[in-house]
Design a protein that fits this description.
alpha/beta, L-2-Hydroxyisocaproate Dehydrogenase, Chain A, domain 2, Rossmann fold, 16 strands
């Protein structure tokens, strides 16, 4: 039986951390790509040399895309994760990155279409929901094969902050976040619990609001600490959970940026965009989208995040039409 092939485009902190996590879980052979010559080769070899101690046989190799022909090495990839792009700097929102990263995504998407037209794709480049839309528009792939990071990471942060406040294990926290992967994301309070007990029974409203605010700005908090970079450990393991659900067909319910169409578009009041939704991820990619009911307050927040993502998608369309 052929081994699973996983390609990562972008060997920065997120891409290299992800490569290590994927190797540790032995999810497949890993191919690391980056525009900077020597970086993907060096980082891949460094990870590979740790395999004897990690007890994993995942092959890890790197290729510089400064020579664009090296994209040929992603041929036959089962899963491709796109992390290439500029990272945020202090004071910069995810949306500020849009124009520069659409240009990056355009080149990557054309090569994915050329060399790996059957792959499932996880888009990480920020703003991830909008970049998933750009990749979809450029490749013309079936949208269920494309998903964006967002809810997986945001939900992990939300669960962590709730665990810290309650003083209980993160394993007993059940909470998730939908909407755009930005400052207007929608943490679902009504569906959040600790050991099955609703968090509204365990924490006062003011404290929950503080945690929601911290979740929305969680990435920015780390950017402000690091000064010269952005988060990569939590994003890396959040992506790993998505990839593992594809590779091992785990059918996990992980909030992710998915394409809205048909009855789901009608339910959510938006059509033809990628946005964070409660979904099931399996070997075919996004295998099911779940419809959520909104309270009046939640609906107002949802409409706000939809409008933000729609505006970004409009900008992508303008860029691609030039």
């Amino acid at each position: 039986m052929p081994r699973t092939k996983i390609s990562i485009v972008g060997a920065g902190n997120v891409g290299s951390s992800l490569a290590q996590f994927l190797a540790l879980r032995e999810l497949g052979d890993i191919y690391l790509f980056d525009i900077v010559e020597g970086v993907p080769e060096g980082k891949a070899l460094d990870i590979y040399e740790g395999n004897p101690h990690w007890g994993t046989d995942s092959k890890v190799v790197g290729f510089s895309t400064q020579n664009e022909e090296n994209y040929k090495h992603m041929a036959g990839s089962d899963v491709i994760i796109v992390t290439a792009g500029l990272a945020r700097k202090p004071g910069m929102s995810r949306d500020d990155l849009l124009s520069k990263n659409v240009e990056v995504i355009s080149g990557v998407a054309r090569n994915i279409k050329k060399y790996a037209p059957e792959a499932k794709i996880v888009v990480v480049t920020n703003p991830a929901d909008t970049m998933a839309y750009a990749l979809y528009k450029i490749t013309g792939f079936k949208p269920e094969r494309i998903m964006g990071l967002g809810g997986s990471l945001d939900s992990s942060r939300f669960r962590t902050f709730l665990s810290m406040e309650l003083g209980v294990s993160v394993e007993d926290i059940n909470a998730f976040v939908i909407g755009g992967h930005g400052d207007d994301m929608v943490p679902f309070i009504r569906y959040s619990s600790a050991g099955g007990i609703p968090i509204t029974k365990l924490l006062p409203k003011e404290k929950i609001e503080e945690i929601v605010k911290r979740t929305r700005t969680g990435g920015g908090e780390i950017v402000n600490y690091l000064k010269t970079g952005s988060a990569y450990y939590a994003p890396g393991i959040s992506i790993t959970a998505m990839v593992e659900s594809i590779v091992r067909d785990k059918k996990r319910m992980i909030p992710s940026a998915a394409f809205l169409t048909g009855s789901h578009a009608k339910h959510y009041g938006a059509e033809g965009i990628f946005i964070g939704l409660p979904v099931k991820i399996g070997s075919n990619g996004i295998e099911q989208v779940y419809d959520m009911d909104f309270s009046e307050e939640e609906l107002a927040l949802w409409k706000k995040t939809v409008a933000s993502v729609q505006e970004n998608c409009r900008k992508v369309d303008e860029f691609l039409s030039k």
